[in-house]
Amino acid sequence: MKYNEQVLIEAILAEGKEGQLATSTFFNAHKNMIHLLSSKYRLTVEDRQSAYADAIMAVIHALKNGTYKKEAKLETYLSTIFKHKCVNLSKQNLTIKREPHRADWIDDLLDLTDEAKSAIHKIISKERYEQFVIELEKIGEKCKRLLLAIGQGYSTQEIMKEMGYTSKGSIKVSRHRCIQRFLGNSE
């Protein structure tokens, strides 16, 4: 749905039916974000819809209190907030779901051999999650952060940005070394 951004902003800021209609228009114009941007965060449809609604409300709040500075298009601003909401929800869900006996998220680490997965699963199931964390601490903070980020579904681009890697290749090499270091510590 196409709209004039400035007209829409003015309408959202208006009181009454005009503001409600503009808010509804804005909400419906970008609903495809629920499916396009959030699939990598492994959220339920309900969680994605909730994150989207929260992002819409955050944008409207920013418009009304003047914190939206028009440095980016409104759609880009919404997309950024929505991504952050999805990441936060995903992290919350991981914290809730990470029970000591649950080791299946290790399968998400890319390019692990079955033997490596098996070794990690054995450690987690045998020593429980607390022991896994102790072992993970032994490989160093950067390796720990890298393996956890991969396991939590962060994209290569996000990992590059957050952890300061310069290329996808350097992430692959580091991941391999970290896994080898982890497997060496866990035997």
Largest sheet: none
Which percent band covers the strand fraction? under 5%
| Class computed from helices, strands and strand pairing | mainly alpha
CATH names the topology of the largest domain as: Rna Polymerase Sigma Factor, Chain: A
In round numbers, the mean pLDDT is 76
Q: Note the total helix count.
A: 9
Going by CATH, the architecture of the largest domain would be Orthogonal Bundle
> What is the radius of gyration computed over CA atoms, rounded to a whole number of angstroms?
21 Å
| Number of DSSP E strands | 0
Q: Characterize the overall form.
A: elongated
Order of helix and strand elements from N to C terminus: HHHHHHHHH
What is the CA–CA distance across the termini? 57 Å
Helix content: over 70%
Give the C-level CATH assignment of the largest domain.
Mainly Alpha
How many distinct folded domains?
A: 2
Low-pLDDT segments: 96-103
Describe the model.
The protein has helices at about 5-15, 15-30, 35, 45-65, 75-95, 115-140, 140-150, 155-165, 170-185. With about 190 residues, the protein is mostly helical. It has two domains: about 5-95, Rna Polymerase Sigma Factor, Chain: A, CATH 1.10.1740; about 100-185, no CATH class. Helix 1 (about 5-15) crosses helix 2 (about 15-30), helix 4 packs across helix 5 (about 75-95) and helix 6 (about 115-140) packs across helix 9. The longest helix has 25 residues, at about 115-140. The protein is elongated, with a radius of gyration of 21 Å. The N and C termini lie far apart (about 55 Å). Mean pLDDT is about 75; it is low at about 95-105.
